[in-house]
Structure prediction request, 486 residues.
Amino acid sequence: MLNSTLSELAGALARGSISSVELTRLCLERIARLNGVLNAFITVDAERSLREARAADERRAAGRAGPLTGIPLAHKDIYCTRGMLTTCGSRMLANFVSPYDAHVVERFAAAGTVLLGKTNMDEFAMGSSNETSYFGPAKNPWDTAHVPGGSSGGSAAAVAARLAPAATGTDTGGSIRQPAAFTGVCGLKPTYGVVSRYGMIAFASSLDQGGPMARCAEDLALLMNAMAGHDARDSTSLERATEDYSRELSAPLAGLRIGLPREYFGAGIAPEVLARVREAIAWFEAHGARLVELDLPNSRLAVPVYYVIAPAEASSNLSRFDGVRYGHRARGYADLADMYCRTRAEGFGAEVKRRILIGTYVLSHGYYDAYYLQAQKVRRLIARDFAEAFERCDLIMGPTAPSTAFALGANRDDPVQRYLNDIFTIPAPLAGLPALSIPCGFDAAGLPVGLQLTGKHFAEARLLGAAHRYQQATDWHRRVPAATPL
Ligand code: GLN
Prediction:
């Protein structure tokens, strides 16, 4: 049962071959057994989960069940959950109990899902290894000496190790797709504005987007059907007709034009990653897709642009954590200014401070034009490259990350090296585009490789359809991690 996809579990619940309470118990037992090693969850509340599961079973008995009713899932600890700790992986919020639910949390509750708990993450979603978490790093279930990726590393580890059939994540520069790739699961970053950011603790507001993580593309579609939709409380939430993200799951591949940017297949990529990705692309070609070579000439500027814009927005967003309104406050202080200083010095970790420093610097008078404004202009060029590319192809494929999961502690003292890891995931959010990572094989050490599919705005269903066809023919997404056998 634990190795079933969410769609299969939904079927089992509908047939009555398992109840939500039984399924929830299985997950909770597995969490109790493995979370000590994986550190995937920051908060688990078994009583609450079982209460929700009983309510889901009653709802089903009353004939009011929807497709996700009774499905257990986990939320990244960046989503505010009423009455439950929401830490954002930070000491600053280590004691914060949210008085309200995020829109995404509300939507899943309305669909009748069962909350298993809140998953570990890089502090304020800043990182790509989960190592910046105040609660310690989550571990990769394929090899616990390796990182699960980040920032949604806890969600990725939980889904990969079968602690939860699905989880939510957020992606600013790759935080859904890169951990999905590192742990052999699937993750979708939707088009900017499709999922409400209300109650999702802000990192870089023009980039942040919530999305689903699960074992297969079909499951991502089901989750998107629940989590997408307009929300008046987020001014960037789009007003669009409701769409069925499953509608293209059986669309044929024949005639599909797959763009291959030369920049995504160049130097600096691990040879085994490149080999697995090329094999996957060859499968698509053998099944009717047409390959189109193209260029995204400005993508080489994506990392520097991101590391100006994201810290700039973060420095503004994080100014609210001042010891007055929520979270941590220093114990001893001389006056108000001293209270702010001590609170922020104690509450934030090194990476968050680094970003606040960079952000305030690039926004400061005298540097604004040289850095921030310049970055915004190049951001525009990156978006234009994609727009031109999508005149020649329907979707773009390449590796999700240049390597497989690296060892815990690697690059600890080299932030620039860490930032370069985001090279393939950063362009899509800069252009607001949807992008998906699915597993496409393993390296010699047994670590998963991720294939990234990027589409034009609102092409989620098409990306999911292409991924689903591939997953009907392959079983990478079915493999169970070595360190956490069933
Ligand atoms: N790794 C990137 C960063 O550190 C992306 C994080 C994210 O998408 N939240 O900013």
Remarks:
- The pocket of glutamine is lined by residues 125-128, 151, 171-175, 203, 310, 422 (CB under 6 Å).
- The chain is about 40% helix and 15% strand.
